[in-house]
Design goal:
Shape: globular
Number of helices: 16
Keywords: Disulfide bond, Glycoprotein, Glycosidase, Hydrolase, Lipid metabolism, Lysosome, Signal
EC number: 3.2.1.-
GO molecular function: alpha-galactosidase activity
Strand order of the largest sheet: 7-6-5-4-3-2-1-8
Enzyme class: hydrolase
Bound molecules: 2-acetamido-2-deoxy-beta-D-glucopyranose
Structural class: alpha/beta
Subcellular location: Lysosome
Oligomer: single chain
């Protein structure tokens, strides 16, 4: 495969009609409560971790003060278990009065004052997954208007306690209802995850027209197993999923769990690298008040974020599954750049993987290579020169490659054998 042809084909395929709210032209970034804080509503015994306005204010402070906002992490998203068990007299959803005494509008102001955006959670069904009031077809309009009135910037609409018929009607209906409020509200649809994530039950053309992002598959858990299951599902089905993504419309493999308990350092790097290749939304679900320096460095890696946020918005793919249990992922980027991830599924020791760019579909020429995690550079790598990378078990080596296009190519070719030795 010639990557230049592939880029052309991919660019054409992602030129579908995106949801016309102007939002999320690159994958959204921020923080989402669910994976780390779930439905902890015990503010008496666990006040600093319970789902409450204090938790979201704490996280907003951290995003604003610890350098996250400037990197693009701007969404603070509430998930399930925020609401009261009853709607108010006008039939509107209302937040739990004890855990959100200031109400959502006040929390929205707090978040907006810090240059951030607020996301909220609803469920198209009789109840949310946690048993709170759901949004039935007859309350879609009033709920959209309530969220808009509160100053909400994003809605994740889950799909517990409903069925295919309700979802087929309700997800497009909510998209229209959000638009009708006049407030730009990004829309995350859990619909495909409830329909198996694949055609013919899932119509990705339609999803791109009504949602900004969508959960294709099951929830992430705080474990490496969970990350691998997700990566495998997305890679196995990449020919269906990859063309669905583009500016304003993203596949969502779910939250980043980096900084929690389930991933080693290598595995944390792997999640971040693979999410960048997949053009995935980067919603951290961790405790930003108590993050290790290692986790922070991974999540705040500017080059990695730049790859995730590439303006072309073309989702990458797995190119190769080697017998050695090394997998190679690739994503085309703007200005003819590209990213490669060499991912080890091995469990023994660092593996010395040898290949040449020409074997990975790169065309004639010289490339400058930047190693995203070590910061080392290979000034010139010719397409047909063999290189070796040492990949740790369950870890990655990630490269950003830019073609070198100037007249000095002959010189650089001569130096190749010399440079070749610097690659590891
Ligand atoms: C609503 O949709 C129209 C047409 O699709 C679009 O031009 C407009 O920006 C949308 N408004 C909002 C608030 O999403
Ligand atoms: C789906 O749910 C709706 C609302 O609860 C119900 O009226 C309808 O009969 C259900 N349809 C199927 C096929 O189960
Ligand atoms: C999928 O949705 C698109 C856009 O809404 C529509 O034109 C197309 O007919 C649908 N495809 C199928 C197989 O239903
Ligand atoms: C390549 O070789 C030329 C001349 O032999 C030298 O001037 C140049 O610095 C070398 N470039 C690199 C990147 O080593």
């Amino acid at each position: 495969m010639d990557p230049s042809l592939a880029i052309f084909a991919l660019a054409l395929s992602s030129a579908t009609l995106a949801l016309d709210n102007g939002l999320m032209r690159t994958p959204p970034m921020g923080w989402l409560a669910w994976e780390r804080f779930r439905c902890d509503i015990d503010c008496t015994h666990d006040p600093s971790n319970c789902i409450s306005e204090w938790l979201f204010r704490d996280m907003a402070d951290r995003l604003a003060e610890d350098g996250w906002r400037e990197l693009g992490y701007v969404y603070i998203n509430i998930d399930d278990c925020w609401s009261s068990m009853d709607r108010d007299k006008q039939g509107r959803l209302q937040s739990d009065p004890h855990r959100f005494p200031g109400g959502i509008p006040k929390l929205a102001r707090y978040i907006h004052d810090r240059g951030l955006k607020l996301g909220i959670y609803g469920d198209l069904g009789t109840h949310t997954c946690g048993g709170y009031p759901g949004t039935t077809l007859d309350t879609v309009t009033i709920d959209a208007q309530t969220f808009a009135d509160w100053g909400v910037d994003m809605l994740k609409l889950d799909g517990c306690y409903s069925n295919g018929t309700v979802q087929e009607e309700g997800y497009p209906l909510m998209s229209k209802a959000l638009n009708a409020t006049g407030r730009p509200i990004a829309y995350s649809c859990s619909w495909p995850a409830y329909q198996g994530g694949l055609p013919p039950k899932v119509n990705y053309t339609q999803l791109g027209e009504i949602c900004n992002l969508w959960r294709n598959y099951g929830d992430i858990q705080d474990s490496w197993d969970s990350v691998l299951t997700i990566v495998d599902w997305f890679s196995t089905n990449q020919d269906v999923l990859q063309p669905a993504a583009g500016p304003g419309q993203w596949n969502d493999p779910d939250m980043l769990i980096i900084g929690n308990f389930g991933l080693s350092l290598e595995q944390s790097r792997s999640q971040m690298a693979l999410w960048a290749i997949m053009a995935a939304p980067l919603f951290m679900s961790n405790d930003l008040r108590a993050l290790s320096n290692e986790a922070r460095a991974i999540l705040q890696n500017k080059v990695l974020i730049g790859i995730n946020q590439d303006p072309l918005g073309i989702q990458g793919k797995r190119l190769l599954k080697e017998k050695s249990r090394i997998e190679v992922f690739w994503r085309p980027l703007s200005d003819s750049a590209s990213a490669l991830v060499f991912f080890s599924r091995r469990t023994d020791m660092p593996y010395r993987y040898k290949n040449a760019l020409s074997q990975l579909g790169y065309k004639d020429g010289n490339y400058k290579v930047y190693d995203v995690f070590t910061g080392k550079t290979i000034p010139v790598l010719t397409h047909d020169a063999y290189f070796t990378v040492s990949i740790n078990p369950s870890g990655v080596v990630m490269w950003l490659l830019s073609p070198i296009v100037h007249s000095g190519q002959a010189h650089e070719r001569e130096n190749l054998s010399l440079l070749h030795n610097h690659i590891e």
